[in-house]
Design a protein that fits this description.
Length: 232
């Protein structure tokens, strides 16, 4: 794995939703089984879609020719969107947009009392305590994000052998899911220390979520735009 793929994998690993899901599962009775089911579901969908996208893209590139135009144009497009997101987070434009949407919803539908408000569907599924449900919830929650999609594009454009491409996809996912892999192993060897560590990590993400998202979007966007311009 080259340094660019490694950078993208580390970027993809800083995924607050993943650690939040692990925190929910740690509060369930069969937490080792449930964290394992979540990890299995997440890796299944991520690796499965990764292989499908890489080999589909390789087939298209073999049929239609050079990948250079696709490569730099995709970098510029996704990099530009990431920079726009970083600016929106920095200026809190997203908060104003959500507030306007909430106001329109409240105008049409009066808000429910606090005790009648429902938790997000993903949280309700994860808190249900069923390993099969957690597995299938992980399939929906862990669809590929921007950094992973760019990584898959790079793997496809590298024209690797089938074995090498699968190896890169597996290595990328091993890094990307480290926030769930470490707690899973920790539950087996030091459950109490693992629970405290995951809870503190989740609290840190909650306090600094906007800053983390802004920095990650800015770094990813700048990296992709510079790389796209240099390859155009």
């Amino acid at each position: 794995m080259d340094w660019q793929l490694l950078l993208l994998a580390l970027e993809a690993a800083l995924y607050p939703t993943l650690i939040a899901a692990v925190v929910i599962l740690l509060n369930q009775p069969r937490r080792v089984v449930l964290v394992g089911a979540y990890l299995a579901g997440g890796l299944t969908i991520s690796i499965g879609l990764g292989c499908a996208l890489v080999f589909g893209a390789q087939g298209a590139l073999d049929k239609h020719g050079s990948s250079s135009t696709l490569s730099w144009s995709a970098d510029l497009a996704i990099g530009g969107l990431a920079l726009i997101l970083a600016v929106a987070l920095a200026t809190r434009s997203d908060e104003r947009l959500r507030a306007r949407r909430a106001a329109r919803r409240e105008a049409k539908h009066p808000p429910k009392p606090k005790d009648e408000e429902k938790e997000p569907w993903s949280q309700r599924l994860l808190a249900g305590g069923s390993a099969p449900i957690v597995f299938f919830a992980a399939l929906a929650i862990n669809l590929p994000g921007a950094a992973y999609l760019i990584g898959l594009k790079d793997i496809a454009a590298g024209h690797h052998s089938t074995g090498a491409a699968i190896g890169l996809i597996l290595a990328f996912n091993a890094i990307m899911f480290v926030m769930a892999e470490i707690p899973f192993v920790g539950l087996l060897v030091a459950p109490e220390a693992t629970e405290r560590l995951v809870t503190r990590t989740n609290a840190w993400f909650s306090r600094n979520g906007r800053t983390i998202a802004m920095v990650l979007s800015g770094v990813l966007g700048a990296f992709l735009v510079v790389r796209g311009i240099s390859h155009s």
